[in-house]
Each structure stands twice: as C-alpha cells, then as structure tokens.
Write a structure and sequence with these properties.
Blueprint: H1 8-14, E1 17-18, H2 24-29, H3 42-45, H4 47-60, E2 64-66, H5 74-78, H6 86-101, E3 106-112, H7 122-141, E4 146-152, H8 155-166, E5 172-176, H9 190-199, E6 204-208, H10 213-226, E7 231-234, H11 264-277, E8 281-282, H12 290-299, H13 320-324, E9 329-330, E10 333-334
Parallel strand pairs: 1-8, 2-3, 3-4, 4-5, 5-6, 6-7, 7-8
Antiparallel strand pairs: 9-10
Helix pairs in contact: 4-6, 4-12, 6-7, 7-8, 9-10, 10-11, 11-12
C-alpha cells in the first residue's frame, strides 16, 4: 500500500520546510522566457526547460516545487496572445511539477499579482477574483498540495487571493512584497499585513521577492512578533543599492543583474538566520538558483554529506587543488 505523503502543515509542525528558487528570471537567462512580459508560455512551448529547472531544485534539496503559473492569469496572458490557452497552461504547469516532485516533494499552485487591482475601485476587486478563480480551477483540478499567493504589494489584493484560495479547501500560504518603502501602498506595515492575513484564514504568512535577505529579514521579524502562525520567507538573490531595496528599481533590471547575484554562502547564511528567527518555510525567489538552494539545504541539514568516491593519484594531479596541495594530506604528509 502506497504511503501517503505528509502535507504542508504537518511538515511545518515537525520542522523547517525548504522551498525552491526563482523560475522566470532564470528561464529568461537561459533564453526560454522573454524579459519584459515575463509570462510563462515556456510551459507550453518548451516544457523540457521547466522540467529541467524543477529537477535542479529538487536535486538540490527543495521539498516543494512551485508550478510555473506566476503571471498565468487571463489579463497577463492576453498581452502575449495566450489568454485562450489559460486553462491548458495552468494544468500543464502543475503536471510538470508533479512529475518531478514524485512521491516525496510537495507541489504548490501559484497565484500572483494581477496588475488589475485598484484599492479605490471595487469593480477591480471582482475582476481580480475572476482571474484567481480561473487559475485555481485548473491548478486544483490537477492536484496541487497547497496554494501559494505571492508578490502582493497591496494587502487588499493579498486578501482577495486568500479569499479565493481558501475556497479550494487547501492550505494557503500568502506572501507580501515591499518595494522601496517599508509599508504597502495602503500604508500597512509588515506586522499589520501578517495580522490581517492570519485573521482572514491564511495558514502560512510571509514575504517574498523584491528584497534580498538583508532587507527582508527585519520585516519578517515584525511579522514574527505580530502573529503565531507559521512564517514563510523567500527573498531575491541580488544585492541592491543603498536606499533602494527593491531589486526591480535597480538600473541593471532586468537583463544586467548577473554581477549583483548573491553567493551561495550568502544564501546559506540567510537560511541559517531565518531558521534561528523561527521561520518555518525557507526558500528563494528571483535570482535564487539551484546552487543557492543546495547550500541552504546543507545548512538546514536537508542534504547528506557528499561521500562520493574521489581516488586521488598525487603523481598525476588532475586539478589545481591536487597540484598545489591545498588542504590535502596523504599518509600523514601535507603536500606543499
């Protein structure tokens, strides 16, 4: 009899869950996604590219794979002529993630900001609800394990995502993002957002995208002090200029970000800091690649040590490490 895998909330109750990294910017870097629209037509046009990135994150130790349905809403897909394939794309994205996740990893559905929300126009709220419902129908229908609603600058839109996601009956993780101010456009602090979202029924609350660990963790501390619900943190993997924590406000965005990418060690330190702060769901967003996730997995004890065989012949060195004898000892003798 096949053993039922643990769900998100059961896993969080038992310890830390390691998420994956960023998809759209990495796939753009590889030539599969267009900078500008950043819509996920790659799911339909080159599913093997999406599958490969899922495999990289999974092999690096990620315990959750997010279906690539960020910006897979009708309004966004219409900008590239794919609104007629909305359901197909959302379903295929989940199928790809489920194939790679196998019997151990979880698959998260994904809802993102719609660019339709206007806090002063109630009609826009119904339009946002309709967009979310269309995406949810396909994703839930394909069997996601829980829903992530992410990258919401407006608390109001995050609350709409909560409302619609909760109707699915699945656990809901909702994460805000903060641009160059430490409050939302409505004037809410991170603590305010956490309280309002938890009161609305969110199971896991947190922050993702726009800011790197340095500028995200102080806001996460506000959330930690405001609510007792499990917290999630998925920052970007880029350095930003003083006074401009939002990486999309850098002149290098979107195609010249390479020199700003954080090292694997810096992301490992973030994972340790987040763990020590009491954050339960730790992952990454734009700019966070499999190399980062692997080091995060190691510091969180999610990966075993690398014990693969390495038979060294010191008379015929094959790397600079062997040739120069860096930290290498043979039979009690240190090579100089």
């Amino acid at each position: 009899m096949q053993k039922k895998k643990k769900g998100l909330m059961e896993r969080l109750a038992g310890g830390i869950v390691l998420g994956d990294g960023g998809y759209l910017l990495e796939l753009e870097k590889r030539g599969w996604v267009r900078a500008g629209p950043f819509t996920p037509e790659v799911v339909l046009e080159h599913p093997e590219a999406v599958r490969e990135l899922h495999l990289e994150f999974r092999r690096a130790g990620a315990e959750v794979l997010q279906a690539l349905t960020f910006y897979a809403s009708r309004e966004k897909l219409a900008t590239v002529g794919l609104d007629g394939r909305l359901d197909e794309l959302n379903r295929e994205a989940v199928r790809i993630a489920r194939e790679v996740a196998g019997e151990d990893a979880l698959v998260a559905g994904n809802l993102a900001l719609t660019w339709l929300y206007d806090m002063n126009d109630p009609k826009s709220h119904d339009a946002v609800r309709a967009q979310f419902d269309e995406q949810l129908a396909g994703q839930v229908g394909e069997g996601v394990d829980f829903m992530i609603g992410e990258t919401f600058s407006f608390l109001g839109e995050a609350l709409l995502a909560t409302e619609r996601a909760k109707k699915s009956g699945l656990p809901a993780m909702i994460t805000m993002c903060f641009e160059n101010q430490d409050v939302t456009p409505e004037g809410y602090t991170a603590a305010d957002c956490a309280r309002r979202l938890v009161d609305a029924g969110v199971d896991v609350v947190g922050i993702n995208c726009l800011r790197n660990p340095e500028h995200t963790l102080p806001l996460m501390r506000q959330m930690r002090d405001a609510v007792s619900a499990p917290l999630a943190c998925q920052p970007v993997g880029y350095r930003t200029a003083p006074g401009k924590p939002d990486f999309t406000s850098q002149p290098e965005f979107p195609t010249q970000l390479d020199p700003l990418q954080l090292s694997r060690g810096e992301m490992a330190q973030f994972a340790a800091d987040a763990r020590d702060m009491g954050i339960r769901y730790i992952g990454g967003c734009c700019g966070v690649v499999a190399t980062h996730v692997r080091e995060m997995a190691r510091v969180l004890d999610k990966l075993p040590p690398d014990n693969r065989i390495w038979r060294v012949n010191y008379d015929r060195p094959t790397s600079a490490t062997e040739y120069y004898g860096h930290r290498i000892e043979e039979k009690g003798k240190t090579r100089a």
